[in-house]
Amino acid sequence: MGDTPHQSDPLRRARLRWRARRGLLENDLIFERFFSRYEHDLSDADVGALTRLLELSDNDLMDLLLARKEPEGDLADADVRRVLEMLRNV
Description:
Layout: H1 10-19, H2 25-38, H3 44-54, H4 58-65, H5 78-88
Helix pairs in contact: 3-5
């Protein structure tokens, strides 16, 4: 993969989209709108933050997406908060 930015590499974009597929339809819908709007503009920092969010369970992720909870601990950094805000606003 080298130093090719995420937005320039169709394979990396496809992998991230596949990884974002969730068990809950509500999460899937949010991610589909997110990728439709932002996929080609994501920075490497955005992809890293998104990857960290995708490591959460579906229910924990939904709570963050619907602003029922705010990121805590390792997730409470500027990159995750920025991507989470983008997800919440699609």
